[in-house]
Amino acid sequence: MSSQTQSIESNDLPHWDDLTRARRRLLRIIGYFRGPAVLERPTLRAAVEDTPVDDVEEVIDDKERILKTLNSCGLLNKLTEEDGYLEKRRQGGGNPIVVDYEYDEERDTCETTVYSETGKIDTMATDILSREGKSVGRLDGVDMSDPKAIIGAVNGIVGRQVLRIHAEASRYCLVPEAVPTVEANLNTSLGEGMSNDDS
Questions:
Q1: Residue 176 confidence (pLDDT)
Q2: In Å, what is the CA distance from 124 to each residue of 15, 36, 68, 116, 142?
Q3: Closest by alpha carbon to 177, among 78, 81, 88, 84?
Q4: 71-84 burial string, b = 16+ CB within 10 Å, else e?
Q5: How far is CA 91 from CA 40, 41, 99, in A?
Q6: Residue 11 has pLDDT above 80, yes or no
Q7: Maximum Cα–Cα distance across the chain
Q8: I want to staple 96 with a disulfide (CB 3.0 to 4.6 A). Which of 35, 115, 174, 190 is the partner?
Q9: Which residue ranges does the chain devote to CATH 1.10.10?
Q10: What is the pTM of this model?
């Protein structure tokens, strides 16, 4: 074990140096922005987005890479289920809704709908493409029974995130045994990592 990295192997957590670079990066993000407090991925991502680039990159890593890491819960779940560094306090995902972020009540038909209501999502898609001056025909070939396919197609056509899926976020926190290791490694190099940067 190097003098700069510390671990709490007695509690069966993987040694810090045995974690992938991406997992160490995410733990440092959590340690820097939340410490031992409970977190939700969207809130953590928003905190990173609102922090000046130089501040984030001085302490953790490339800001764009961090934001990419925080696009999904995949690594949070791996740090919970595979490594034991995190504890999931609440499972999210219940009752997702689709939101039109540029909805105008005087112009559009529907601002939100339940994720499973593909007919209403189709109406939202038509509203958005019409107000953007885009042909609804551009949705030809899209599986209109698949909400994700519709949302992805519409956002791709307009070139920005207009339709988004929202669901209650999962909540995570560092397990008490992990806090000293994460805090001790906030100012160390991320190093090469044990494997691929994305896992």
A1: 95
A2: 49, 40, 27, 13, 15
A3: 84
A4: eebebbebbbeebe
A5: 11, 12, 21
A6: no
A7: 64
A8: 115
A9: 9-92+170-184
A10: 0.62
Using the structure block, give the residue that is written with the tokens 């009752």.
Answer: 95
Q: Are 115 and 97 in contact (CB under 8 A)?
A: yes
The alpha carbon dihedral of 5, 9, 12, 14 has a sign of: positive
Per-residue pLDDT of 101-156, as tens digits, reads 898 888 888 889 988 899 999 999 999 999 999 999 999 999 999 999 999 999 99
Q: Tell me the CATH number of domain 9-92+170-184, given options 2.60.120, 2.30.29, 1.10.10, 1.10.3470.
A: 1.10.10
The H-assigned helical ranges of 12-138 are: 21-33, 41-50, 53-59, 63-69, 74-81, 118-131
* CA pair distance 61, 156, nearest whole angstrom: 29
The pair of structure tokens assigned to 88 is 């999931």
User: How sure is the predictor about 69, in pLDDT bands with cuts at 50, 70 and 90?
Assistant: confident
For 155-193, the pLDDT digits (tens) are: 999 999 999 888 888 999 999 999 999 999 987 665 544
Please indicate whether residue 80 or residue 57 has the higher confidence score (pLDDT): 80
| Distance in angstroms (rounded) separating the CA atoms of residues 113 and 121 | 7
